[in-house]
Amino acid sequence: MTDIIASAVLLIVLPLAFNAAFAGLALSFEYPDVLRRPTAEVLDRFRRGGTRLILLWWAFALTAVLLVPLAGILPSALVGADATLLSLGSIVGVVAGVVQFLGLIRWPFLVPYLARVSAEPDATPARKEAVDVVFQAFNRYLGVAVGEHLGLLFTGAWSILVGAAITQADLLPDWLGGVGIAAGAVLALCSLEFVGSFERTGWALVARLTPVAYVVWSLWLVATGVFLLL
User: Where are the domains of the chain?
Assistant: First the structure.
């Protein structure tokens, strides 16, 4: 019973914390649209955000960490599901949480340094150019490749596995598992948005699906937690 309650609480808290932090970044930093602007403008807005913005990014990164204990404890609540399916889901869920955390943690640690050195009075054009290269390189590697591509891919895979386990479990309705499978499949598809130039290869639709998929995924997590509590 303790594992069921803990799983339910994490299922509800994770999406609420994630969306609250995301909304805060959207309001105070115009995230994620700000990432399409020049590096100097992004770093200037970051500096003006001050300590509050750094803490908000740190909190946003920690929401990804919540997926790790959830992936570890949720199988205990899905009584009746296949053990192999549950074990695989735990592994994939932990990986999903780790890669999302690695993608986000650059913001409270690396970006403040880049914002500071680029604004120093003696900053030369060469230093500013180096800051631009470092910022864009980390944005594409940790942000796009690790956090967004692998994060969406493994989160989608975890959702599919959990959804399949829910259809076998005793405590939850089968339709809830179907929603998880569908939401996970869309998230996995959305991970392809970041492979190459999706504007040239017809992935514009996938780009529009990503925020919708996250909303559905969040509602599915909350609904699963509520059903477990009931």
Answer: 2-229
